[in-house]
Design brief:
- The chain has 117 residues and is mainly alpha-helical.
- 38% of the residues lie in helices and 3% in strands.
- It has a two-stranded antiparallel sheet with strand order 1-2.
- The longest helix has 18 residues, at 4-21.
- The chain is globular.
Length: 117
Amino acid sequence: FLSPDEKVFYRKKYEEYVKRYGSQGPGGNRRIRGNRIFRLHILAKWAASLVRHPTLLAAVKKVLDTENVLIWSSDISCKPATSTECFGWHQDEAYALLGPHEKLVTAWIALTDSNSS
């Protein structure tokens, strides 16, 4: 949903964020840990802009069949291409006490290319 220029912009901002707040991880990759991975839209203007992107909000509103949207959280999930780490399936509702479940949606935005392998 992002234009080519937007992809470059958000990827650059993400990389700047990781460079500034990240720590050295396995294989020399920098990664974000602790409180700087959660509610990123409150900490970084670029993230606030991304989660409020008109195309993203339109899709969320359509799925939820509402004009009222609350951005409860925005998190960074970093997984370098060569990582063996697993980010397993889970349900946010189980630990976040959010509801009703039919009025919740999670939107994932990839800032890098990926493939099935």
